[in-house]
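DM from R.C. (forwarded with permission)

"hey, sorry to bug you on a friday — could you get me a structure for this? deadline for the figure draft is monday and I only need the backbone to look sensible"
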Amino acid sequence: MKNRKEKSVESDEKNVNNNEGPECRQKFYSRLCELRDQARERGIGQDLVAHVFKSRGTLKVQAPVENSWSKTITMALTLSIIITAGVMTCAGIAMKYFGLDEELHELISESRCIVDNGGFTIEIARPLTNCECCRNLKEFPVERNISSEDFVKKYAYTAVPVLIKDATQNWTAMTNFSFDFFKNIYTKTKGALTTIDEECQFFPYKTEFETLGEVFNMSAERANFTPGEKPWYIGWSNCHSEVSAILRQHYQRPYFLPADSESSSVDWMFMGGPGLGAFVHLDYVQRPSWQAQISGQKTWTLIPTPECEDVCTELNVTVSKGDIIVLDTNQWYHATYIHPGEISITIGSEYD
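My reply, with the result:
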């Protein structure tokens, strides 16, 4: 099994464009991981290493840390900011330099162009994870008929993941959502596909598709996973109000969310299979989220962040039709695998 470092490098390599020097970027990122491990061996704490990632190129430490070693870490991690210039704009770098982290977080979260949310970039910018969310967590928590009060106490804002069984009862999405359903909505709703292209996000994963429109133009044979056809799995966010109104006629706010929590107006859809869904990655969104499995079956792999890998373990859970998984995707590296059989369709949203 690949270790955390190998998986992070692999996800970064897959998530950068070919014209941005992926080999160089991968080698440099591997070197950073080596420096991090060497720093730990020499007694340099994770907080200090993280500080360098967030610093403006200076590092003030006290003995017994060696000056030469401190400079090595400072130079290497500061260079990591410079190397990301291939995917970050000058404005983004300037914001990071002048300490505008919250503004940069919002800019990255809401923009499709400022930065490619690859593992390399996320690892630099993200805050440290509170390892209490995974300490002593050996199995993926599973709940049935959980109350809002218990959900808030145990999961809602703790970054502890949970699978809630049979959570989509009475949702008409369970019988209506399909490839043809989405194709019909987006091709017949004026401006819907254009909005996805210009204002939302589209995830082609390992396919050749560049837009959602191209997905809906594939042959019926490929759409139905006819033997011999190329596999596919894609995802997208919907920020078209008319489409959103249609989608939300077919699903309700999950019953376990606290009454005073505010849900995002953006829906997230993931569809396709079988095989690898999303490769190992970390998200850069503002809130925890839920995803409902409308059809098919998907296995999630959760990997703790580097600062928690000594006290936390990898978790796996299979989400079946009717289940909802709740996860803070900012705090857990995650990947998905789609099982053979019925097409996998999930819909989800963020909440606070």
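R.C.: lifesaver. The chain has two domains: 4-128, 133-350.
me: no worries. Confidence is low (pLDDT under 50) at residues 1-22, 53-74, 77-94, 112-117.
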